[in-house]
Design a protein that fits this description.
By secondary structure, this protein is an all-beta fold. Helix content is 2%, strand content 30%. The protein has one domain. It has one helix and 13 strands, in the order E-E-E-E-E-E-E-E-E-E-E-E-H-E. The strands form two sheets. An eight-stranded mixed sheet has the order 1-7-13-12-10-11-8-9. The termini are far apart.
């Protein structure tokens, strides 16, 4: 079932394939930023700080219905704290390591307004990131059906489904808002350029 979720979960680090700790570095916040914890950010030299990444049409991801992050956009990492709105404030940013760091993300269907339940067939698919609209907590998730290059779904989060019903020995019953586990397909260097 597809729906809007006012309390949609934000993009969250849930572990690493090599059992290591995440790499988190403090960066200065850019001018007049409004990003939230879990948003994708990039270092912008013109602002001398981190800003939310852009989407394919040049706007900020989250400002239209078709706003997945384009494959050619650089991403530094994942903000670990909401922006303060004050330039220069230090913001911890998790620097994702390709195919190592695992993130839990909600699944959007067709646009940034509709959260849908994950399905077993999602595992193994490549997806793009998308920022939900205000009705979905402006949470960053993944967009089903984009065949993107940003991330690969590797599992369905057991945190969300362990207490749900289903058939004995079969798949649990998934609901809108249950999260998938993704790994990023490319890494970034400390200056924000893609590796």
């Amino acid at each position: 079932m597809a729906t809007s979720l006012a309390n949609a979960s934000r993009l969250e680090w849930v572990g690493a394939s090599d059992n290591s700790v995440p790499v988190v570095v403090d960066y200065a916040e850019g001018t007049s930023e409004t990003f939230k914890r879990g948003d994708l950010v990039i270092y912008d030299r013109s602002e001398d700080g981190v800003v939310v990444v852009t989407q394919g049409d040049g706007g900020v991801y989250g400002d239209t219905n078709n706003d997945e992050v384009a494959n050619n956009v650089n991403c530094l990492g994942v903000a670990q704290r909401d922006a303060s709105g004050t330039a220069g404030t230090l913001i911890p940013v998790l620097l994702p390591r390709p195919n190592v760091d695992r993130f839990a993300a909600i699944v959007f269907d067709t646009d940034n307004t509709t959260v849908t339940a994950p399905v077993t067939d999602d595992i193994g698919t490549l997806v793009d990131f998308i920022k939900g609209d205000a009705n979905n907590n402006s949470a960053t998730g993944v967009l089903r059906g984009t065949a993107g290059l940003w991330a690969k779904i590797v599992d369905i989060s057991r945190q969300d489904t362990q207490f749900r019903g289903g058939t004995v020995g079969g798949d649990p019953t998934y609901s809108a808002g249950d999260r998938v586990v993704v790994v990023l397909q490319s890494g970034v260097s400390s200056d924000g350029s893609q590796a």
